[in-house]
Design brief:
heterodimer; A: 429 residues; 17 helices; globular; B: 1148 residues; mainly beta
């Protein structure tokens, strides 16, 4: 009558270091759909893209965000968190391994938790009510019940996690990710958490580490398989991993230069297109293509490559803006940080003098869109951070929808099951 | 009806050719052998003529010193008579010297008798010689011409009938026919009458007269109540049945044109709902007995073929490159396991409907049980049946799509309505793609349905040979089915053979076996969401199929023709069913039967898609090799005893079942050369394998008792252990009891006994279980994955140690009756089924790492009645007309979900696959916003909120922020995916050698919700679709009125779930119309011929809108076993076929 499975493991067998490492690899595999969906959906919410072949995209374009579309993003994030948290619930301290090996496991576990919660909070965190997704530090039993955390607690947790990752990566000689990936992510986190001094420090540390260098040609960053030295952290593509959805595949499929297969193309009337479509800018000419009907995004010209999660260019722009925000003024290094990217993209636009603070912030906002469009949802996060408006559709009329008008519309709803089971609301329950 | 085309001759694949040659040789051999047998019979019969009397035969005889022996010899030489004598009687020294001129033999013998001490007795040709006694001296020569009469007794199929009693009326003298139906009987004179009688046949009396050869055909006399019904682990006479079992005779099984035998149950068994969703060769048929008894555990009945439980469902669940593109699911269309069984091999089917009948299959009987008994040989002459049928088919319906002119009219209207300039239509609307010019578009009018449908052809050939001796009987058959369906590119071939053998070793021991081998080669085309015919609305009528250079226009997976042509789906399988039994008669009435069965299924699937139709532009391919192995071992101890009026039947049994399934698949991506298609040749190769197993251990007991055949009791008990459940709840216990009372046998019934000849009341109650939830649901497991070539782990399932059986209890109250000696008969049953501890994929917090756990929770009920009425309306000499009506009413309700957190129901989007369940509503009900029609002033859709207020579409957005929010807050359960009434009416006729039947089937009360339709009613935006013709009635101006589609615009719409697209799919269908001509010949070569013409699904009357391919479609989107109700997409289904079939059966 006993017929135990020959495939897979039961939880009681996950007791050694190899299992903990395997859980980490599992979690990295599980976050693949999560990260790519963020990049895709946020571009839709900003109306930077047009829908060609996928009806569901209209939900985002119309700012009718339903659980149908977003709940699997929520699911894949928490699946990965469940896997990571299993490591924290196991007795790692008493596992037979060196301190370095243990630190390596903890470093990646904290890194992933920071990465996932950062994105969850970006899309589910309500800046008005101040509540966000529940915070889980250990695996959730099916009978356990939780409530929403405050965005403040979530942000603190994310920052603690990324710092723990950095600390552990310093102890460990190796991990799946590494110290600089954690530091770069910390820069991104602090930047969007508007802790500009820390954002500056982390970005500065990465830039000055001399571990990474900008490509002279921006298109080199996106040459398959994506091993450019500009890349600080990437979600790996490896063909032996099987044909599961990899982030690069998802984005390639969505934007590809095919009249029938791609789902989306650049919206020529959108904010992003207005800045990007510059025939003299290498970031447009080498990373986009056009035919009579559409402009295609070609940052991922194949699905057989790594997904670039953080690259050095972002660190320059982050360092520049964080520096200005800390100092209240613009200095030459800030201008140099801007120019280092303009130089390789459109030398004619290089700044020859130091603009005013407001002018510089506007320039950085534009440069971030030009440089990082369709990569990680930067336009959405930045629009949200700066409380800017969003262009209206023809149905909505002319001009921009203000931050106050869109912010609640663009809030991802909790999956209905979670609301039923936990009674999740963002009003403090 | 059909436009016939003569197709180019193509070479048959070598395998088929070889098989065909063998078949032809085989048939020729049988015909030759049969002729030999028949000729031998004829010669034999020639020698059996009668002879003249000695009183009539005259001779000239000269005897000179002849002794008695030489005298006899001389007579023998001159006549045909022979003398029979004992040497010692004729030893005498006497010699004869006498001449007889023109004297009768009689006169000669009288003279010799006088001169000797002998007497003579003529018996036909023989003249017996004996020493005479004193009495015989008075009459020494007797010419007793004891005539014999002989002949063959045939059955209804013109086969010799063994064991028939042939008796001289009024005497006990008689004989019994031999294996071949031959008899020979001496008769005293011409004036006697012979009585031919056999069980199951009408007696026949024949006055012999002058005939010496009398062949007789006995008519079948099936006393329905005496029919033996197969029930679990035994049989029972129908009049003694206390539970609800429907027996289906093979003649009634209209499976000729269905993909699989179970399709033939439609309309002929009350309470059995059969849904054939597609014309795809070998595709799944969904069967529900008395409603669906489960939500997400398997709801298909258990099929038991000759004692072997069969895992029904799809042969393989492999998906052709499913991971490449999610729409590519082909699961629902995968080859049906049950289609491996050749319908021509089926002798009978029994459908066990109530718990008392099914409880004996306790562990797996919750959805009812279908027992299939295959044919077996009978002792006697070897019977050879050769049959063939050929059919043509087309779609039952062509959905109405706009033609080019209509499309352009509406597309321009939508363009204009959206505030655009008509002058910009061609340049800006996006209808010109892939280099198409306006001029080309304007002269194109593609009917995309024509591009994917064709006239289907099916040919089915069977040869069966059966027969045997009194010790050994056999049935051997071979079958070929060769089908090209109405879906272009779809080809289904089945080659099968069967051998059934039974042998009586001695008085105590009998053994036997049943073996089936089937090979299926299924070349599929994409259907459902995978493409092909389902994509006919994805291309515009103004778009050509191909460009001028011959390449596909706007090629992608959405292109119905390219999607078919550039893809190969080939599913091959071998199924072997085999079982052995040994029966040992311990003492009279007590027997032990042991039975070992195996069910092996091997599948070999291949999928290939060219880069033109993959989303990344590279060719991909995959192979899947799988095997499923099932074994079961039964031991059955049976004791029967009849003492006086008490009759008892005791049964004790044990059963072990074990199943293992394994599969290996290889996926290949990127090929450097277009001729390479196998994964091994791909640049990227990924492999995976799967393995799972389960087992059951069961103990069974049953008592059947009756007193005088009038008071009937049956009790059974089954204990089942299953590896699929948690250690704490592994065992399930399933008792059942049923009572019957044959009231018509009571004395007090006598006054009306002449009219109501049989009346029985039945009452039963029992429990049955369901364990069809997959193999390891109770166990928490971590599954492996790969990240950058490193092994990863992730939570795959959260288990539950307490996970246990889903149990269905069923109360059944019924009557069975017969009026006017069986001219009218019927059964009516009321039932009430309650399924508790539903095995639900219960939504849990996704933050636990999984979104569903399998859990026992909730209750659902099915209540209703079954009715079956049969009548013989006319039965005069050469004309018979009979009618049978079946009807089922069923009400399906989820009564509770057992968890306060989800007491308001689980909607499809919450994770139960695509099933929604709400207490108080049927399983799979739709959750919809109520549509309130089109505002005839503004042309906008209007909706009702939960308070009953009417809001226009724009008002809903205004008040709720978005339509999604409005929908979320104002939807409610609506519709019913399950029919309330199902049934059929069948009339059968026969006139002399002609026969015919008409079967209508129907289903009413069910609805279908098609969420995708809204996108199709706003098809002029970014998604270019060809909408259905009912858009021609879209709102255009305030004055017009009557519009039922809102104003057309270029907006994109993508949402599901308003009642605008909730439709009734009630239908009445002429399921089967047959006319035939059946002759029985006395020919020595061909004993019978049966020629028939059959029309299947010839007419359909339905409330479903004309863009439904077929009203039988109920939204089975992912496997028929579950109750997944289609989340949209009647358009995404495939049509069903109507067929005309010519059949010929030859009995040799």
């Amino acid at each position: 009558m006993d017929n135990p499975p020959n495939i897979g493991l039961t939880p009681d067998k996950l007791t050694d270091l190899a299992s903990a490492e395997a859980l980490l690899y599992g979690a990295y595999a599980q976050i693949r759909p999560f990260v790519s969906q963020s990049a895709l959906y946020s571009a839709g919410m900003m109306r930077d893209i047009l829908n060609r072949n996928r009806g569901e995209y209209d939900n985002f374009y119309g700012h009718e965000i339903s659980t149908n579309m977003t709940s699997w993003q929520y699911t894949s994030a928490f699946q990965a968190l469940g896997t990571i948290n299993k490591i924290f619930s196991d007795d790692l301290a008493n596992t037979a391994a060196t301190e370095e090996e243990k630190a390596s496991v903890l470093a990646d576990a904290h890194f992933l938790r920071a990465l996932i919660y950062f994105d969850l909070n970006n899309y589910w965190g309500d800046p008005i009510s101040g509540y966000t997704v529940p915070l889980l530090e250990f695996p959730l039993g099916i009978d356990d019940r939780v409530s929403c955390a405050t965005t403040a607690d979530a942000m603190a947790f994310i920052e603690t996690e990324i710092e723990s990752a950095r600390t552990n990566f310093q102890v460990a000689s190796a991990g799946i990710s590494n110290y600089y990936a954690a530091t770069a992510l910390a820069a991104r986190i602090y930047f969007y958490h508007e802790k500009y001094d820390l954002a500056y420090a982390r970005a500065d540390e990465v830039i000055n580490s001399n571990q990474f260098s900008l490509e002279s040609d921006v298109s080199e960053v996106f040459v398959a398989p994506g091993n450019s030295n500009e890349i600080i952290f990437k979600i790996m593509f490896n063909s032996v991993d099987g044909s599961g959805v990899s982030p690069s595949a998802r984005i390639f499929e969505a934007y590809q230069n095919s009249a029938t297969n791609g789902f989306y193309s650049l919206n020529p009337n959108g904010v992003a297109a207005g800045l990007i479509m510059d025939e003299t800018d290498a970031r447009y000419t080498s990373l986009y293509s056009a035919d009579d009907n559409y402009v295609y995004v070609e940052k991922y010209s194949t699905d057989q490559m790594h997904y670039q999660y953080i690259r050095l260019a972002e660190m320059y722009l982050t360092r520049a803006e964080a520096d200005i925000m800390v100092n209240g003024s613009v200095n030459q290094q800030d201008v140099d940080d801007i120019n280092v990217l303009r130089n390789r993209a459109k030398p004619s636009s290089v700044l020859t003098s130091i603009p005013t603070k407001d002018q510089t912030l506007d320039l950085i906002f534009e440069d971030r869109i030009k440089e990082l469009a369709f990569e990680l949802g930067d336009h959405f996060l930045n629009t949200k951070r700066l409380k800017l408006g969003i262009i209206k559709t023809e149905d909505e009329g002319e001009g921009f929808k203000t931050y106050a008008e869109w912010i609640e519309l663009l809030l991802y709803p909790f999956p209905a099951t979670e609301v039923d089971i936990h009674g999740l609301t963002r009003s403090g329950n | 009806m059909f436009s016939f085309q003569i197709s180019q001759k193509k070479m048959l694949p070598p395998k088929i050719l070889q098989f065909s040659i063998h078949l032809i040789y085989g048939m020729a051999l049988f015909i030759w052998l049969s002729q030999g047998i028949v000729l031998a019979k004829v010669n034999n019969r020639a020698q059996n003529n009668n002879f003249e009397s000695i009183k009539k035969v005259k001779i000239n005889l000269i005897l000179k010193d002849d002794d008695i022996r030489s005298t006899f010899k001389k007579i023998e030489n001159k006549t045909s008579f022979v003398f029979a004598y004992d040497e010692k009687d004729v030893v005498m020294n006497r010699s004869f010297n006498v001449s007889y001129v023109d004297q009768t033999v009689y006169t000669v013998l009288v003279d010799i008798a006088k001169k000797s001490n002998l007497n003579f007795r003529q018996v036909n040709r023989r003249i017996n010689v004996q020493k005479s006694t004193s009495e015989q001296r008075l009459d020494p020569v007797i010419s007793k011409q004891e005539r014999s009469v002989s002949g063959i007794v045939y059955d209804e199929l013109n086969e010799g009938l063994p064991g028939v009693n042939v008796v001289i009326k009024g005497t006990s003298s008689g004989t019994i026919t031999d294996y071949e139906g031959n008899y020979r009987l001496n008769i005293p004179d011409e004036n006697i009458t012979l009585v031919f009688s056999a069980i199951g046949y009408d007696d026949q009396e024949i006055l012999v007269g002058a005939r010496s050869v009398i062949d007789v055909t006995l008519g079948v006399n099936v006393k329905e109540l005496e029919e033996v019904v197969v029930m679990g682990y035994g049989t029972q006479i129908k009049r003694k049945m206390t539970s609800s079992v429907s027996r289906v005779n093979v003649e009634k099984l209209n499976s000729a044109a269905t993909n699989s035998f179970e399709g033939g149950l439609q309309g002929i068994v009350p309470g059995v709902q059969v849904t054939t969703s597609s014309a795809l060769g070998g595709s799944a048929i969904r069967v529900r007995i008395r409603g669906t008894s489960s939500v997400s555990a398997n709801s298909e009945p258990l099929y038991v073929i000759d004692g072997i439980p069969i895992e029904s469902g799809e042969i393989s669940t492999s998906q052709p490159g499913g991971s490449i593109k999610e729409w590519n699911l082909q699961q629902a269309a995968n080859t049906n396991v049950l289609a491996s069984l050749n319908p021509a091999d089926i002798e009978s089917m029994e459908v066990l409907k109530d718990a008392a009948a099914a409880a004996i299959y306790g562990s797996r009987g919750a959805n009812g049980v279908v027992l299939i008994t295959t044919k077996n040989g009978k002792a006697g002459v070897t019977k050879v049946t050769v049959s063939g049928s050929f059919g043509l088919s087309e779609a039952t319906n062509r959905i109405g799509l706009l033609n080019a002119e209509q499309y352009l009219t509406l597309a321009k209207q939508a363009w204009y309505n959206s505030g655009f300039d008509i002058a910009d239509f061609w340049s800006n609307s996006g209808v010109l793609v892939d280099g198409l010019t306006q001029e080309e578009a304007e002269r194109t009018d593609t009917d995309w349905i024509d591009q994917v449908l064709q006239v289907g052809k099916v040919a089915d050939y069977n040869v069966s040979i059966s027969g045997g001796s009194d010790k050994t009987t056999f049935y051997l058959s071979a079958n070929i089915k060769d089908q090209t369906t109405i879906l272009r590119g779809n080809k289904y071939q089945r080659f099968g053979t069967r051998l059934n053998v039974d042998h009586q070793m001695n008085e105590k021991i009998s053994v036997g076996g049943r073996f089936m081998l089937t090979y299926i080669d299924d070349k599929q085309v994409p259907t459902n969401w995978a493409g092909g015919v389902s994509n006919v609305s994805e291309m515009l009528p103004i778009w050509p199929v191909r460009k001028a250079d011959g390449s596909y226009f706007n090629v992608s997976d959405e292109h119905p023709v390219a999607g078919n042509d550039l893809r190969t789906i080939n599913l091959k399988s071998n199924q072997i069913l085999g079982n052995w039994y040994l029966k040992y008669k311990i003492i009279e009435g007590l027997s032990l039967r042991t039975e070992l069965g195996s069910n092996l299924l091997f599948n070999d699937d291949f999928h290939f898609r060219e880069g033109q139709i993959t989303s990344h532009g590279r060719s991909v391919s995959s192979t899947v090799n799988g095997k499923r192995m099932g074994y079961n071992w039964k031991n059955i101890l049976n004791y029967t005893k009849i003492k006086g009026q008490h009759s008892i039947d005791l049964l004790g049994a044990s059963e072990i079942q074990s199943y293992t399934s394994k599969s290996n698949s290889v996926f290949g991506d990127t090929f450097i050369n277009s001729t390479l298609t196998r994964p091994q040749d791909a640049a990227i190769i990924n492999a995976s394998n799967g393995e799972s197993s389960y087992s059951f251990l069961s103990y069974i007991g049953r008592v059947n008792y009756d007193f005088a055949g009038r008071y009937l009791v049956s009790m059974s008990y089954r204990a089942d252990g299953s590896s699929r459940f948690g250690p704490e709840n592994r065992w399930g216990y399933f008792p059942a009891v049923s009572l019957g009372w044959v009231i018509s046998d009571e004395n007090f019934f006598a006054p009306i006994g002449n009219a109501l000849t049989f009346f029985k009341m039945r009452l039963s109650y029992g429990l049955v279980g369901n364990s069809e939830i997959g193999d390891y649901s109770y166990l928490s497991t971590y599954a492996t994955s790969t990240y950058n070539a490193n092994t990863g782990l992730g939570l795959a399932n959260v288990g539950d140690d307490k996970l246990g059986w889903e149990t269905t209890s069923q109360l059944n109250v019924g009557i069975s009756f017969e009026l006017f000696q069986g001219r009218i008969s019927g059964e009516v049953d009321y039932y009430n089924k309650t399924t508790k501890d539903l095995l639900l994929p219960f939504p849990v917090s996704q933050m636990s790492g999984v979104s569903l756990v399998t859990k026992n929770a909730g209750t659902l009920t099915n209540k209703g009645y079954d009715m079956m009425l049969s009548s013989v309306n006319i039965d005069v000499n050469s004309f018979q007309w009979s009618t049978s009506v079946t009807l089922n009413y069923n009400e399906n309700r989820v009564t509770s979900l057992g968890d306060e957190l989800i007491e308001n129901g689980i909607s499809a989007s919450q994770g139960l696959g695509s099933i929604s369940i709400f207490p108080g509503y049927p399983v799979g009900v739709n959750q919809l916003v109520e549509w309130a029609g089109v505002d005839q002033v503004t042309g906008e859709d209007t909706y009702l909120d939960l308070e009953g207020n009417t809001l226009s579409y724009s008002q809903a957005i205004q008040e709720y922020g978005s339509f999604a929010n409005f929908s979320q807050e104002n939807r409610k359960p609506m519709g019913n995916p399950w029919p309330k009434y199902t049934g059929g009416v069948e009339n059968r006729f026969s006139y002399k050698k002609f026969y015919g039947s008409i079967l209508f089937t129907f289903a009413t009360g069910q609805t279908y919700e098609d969420g995708y339709m809204k996108a199709l009613t706003q098809p002029f935006g970014g998604n270019k679709l060809n909408p259905p013709t009912h858009l021609l009635n879209a709102w255009s101006s305030p004055g017009r009125g009557g519009a039922n589609v809102s104003q057309l615009t270029t907006s994109n719409v993508f949402w599901e779930g308003t009642s605008e697209h909730l439709y009734s799919t009630d239908y009445l269908r002429l399921r089967d119309l047959t006319i035939g001509y059946k002759i029985r010949t006395k020919s020595s070569v061909v004993k019978g011929l049966d020629l028939s013409l059959k029309m299947v699904n010839a007419l359909t009357f339905t409330k479903a809108p004309d863009f439904f391919w077929d009203p039988e479609f109920t939204g089975v989107v992912q496997g028929r076993q579950s109750n997944n109700i289609g989340a949209g997409g009647a358009f995404k289904q495939s049509p069903q076929a109507k067929s005309i079939i010519l059949g010929l059966v030859i009995n040799l």
